[in-house]
Amino acid sequence: MKEDPRLIATRQTALDAAQKILMDEGVLHVTHGAVSKATGISRSTLYRHWPDARSLRDAAFRRIATPPNIPPKTDGPLRSDLRWLLGVLMGALNDTPWGQIAPQVVAAASTDEEARLVITEFMKDRFASVEAVFAAAVGRGEITADIPVDQLIELAVAAPYFRKLIRHEALDEEWLDKHVDLLCSIAKTNSGQ
Amino acid sequence: MKEDPRLIATRQTALDAAQKILMDEGVLHVTHGAVSKATGISRSTLYRHWPDARSLRDAAFRRIATPPNIPPKTDGPLRSDLRWLLGVLMGALNDTPWGQIAPQVVAAASTDEEARLVITEFMKDRFASVEAVFAAAVGRGEITADIPVDQLIELAVAAPYFRKLIRHEALDEEWLDKHVDLLCSIAKTNSGQ
DNA sequence: CTCCTATAGAACAATTTGTTGCATAGTAGA
DNA sequence: TCTACTATGCAACAAATTGTTCTATAGGAG
Questions:
Q1: Which of chain B's residues have a Cβ under 8 Å away from the Cβ of A167?
Q2: What CATH number labels B78-189?
Q3: What CATH topology corresponds to A5-64?
Q4: Measured between CA atoms, how close is B193 to chain A, in angstroms?
Q5: B54 CA vs C20 C1’ separation (Å)
Q6: Cβ distance B159 to B183 under 8 Å?
Q7: Per-residue pLDDT tens for A96-136?
Q8: CB A49 within 7 Å, strand C
Q9: DSSP code at position A4
Q10: Contact criterion met (CB below 8 Å) for A115 and A61
Q11: pLDDT tens for each residue of A8-46
């Protein structure tokens, strides 16, 4: 029993448009009417797919707020692995829908359980990737196991997110290099004391 | 030419309610109708004060998003000054309207120039306070001037904001102690090389 | 070709948004 | 106290938005 291709096409077209509206104009403007006007899909069809405004907005959030997984590179050295991982993360923030939508998800999370889940799940993934990088460095004997890994992970990820989402400052290669340098120096000076 | 006390009372009552709605239910629910129902002020009066939905929301944002200034304590030692300053900042995030509203402001900033100004101005203040603390420590000779101050400031402020706004994790005394410890150790090990 | 189902479109009710005119009541000044 | 002023409340209203329902049509599956 396969799904009618028209269902799939409608959903895809509608959510594409909803996503664009969400990014360009904010959550306030994601409505059945706006999506209908943007796509040509009739309002009644949209209501059949998403019975009310909230479910439409939720669908738009969920679709866009599913960022790609980053399998970390862990073949060392630490600086190189960390630079690569955070480079990918920074790229995602700069150049993908996720980067544009993240502020909206952050805000939604304060009143919406669904959005909160999206964020915490996502951050768990990111933290795990960074942790894998540090763990590999410990495994190679590059740093010792007594560094405050949890704090380092938090700083590593917090800085780019804070800079992009909250301060609206540029995330560029130069900034990232300095960030990674500092993280490595912390890891190493705290190592083996 | 003094202002009619009724004007002042209406504005205050209305914005109090708008603020509460903004925090509890999100920006979507800040409308003239909702504020009217919450306060008993008639809709027409509200429209007289704020001609459209956007100006009402903006007013609610602006009112709540004016966080208190924190004059930094700079009489040393570094750990103590930093602990005090970040403690106040953490307290504001945990226990004041600003902490609850910040996610909404962050989101609004991605499509609203006004909200972006609020944030950048505010962050400038916070950064200046942290910088004053480090500068005082340099002045006392506790650390040397060649530490990467800008990065340290960013990390100092980014961590609590990230933790609270994005991860929705607790900001407690224990976490803050470890955060300040790490910052101080970075400042000192990078000092005088 | 036939049955099933998704869509378009229009008509509709309900709610929300914004406007206007008028009576009332609070405020300031003489 | 009396007067002029102005903010508010209220009701009526127009316009836009939101959500529902029905019917005709067209696309897809067997």
A1: 119-120, 123
A2: 1.10.357.10
A3: Arc Repressor Mutant, subunit A (1.10.10)
A4: 13
A5: 21
A6: no
A7: 888 888 888 887 887 777 778 888 888 888 899 999 999 99
A8: yes
A9: P
A10: yes
A11: 999 999 999 999 998 888 888 999 999 999 999 999 999
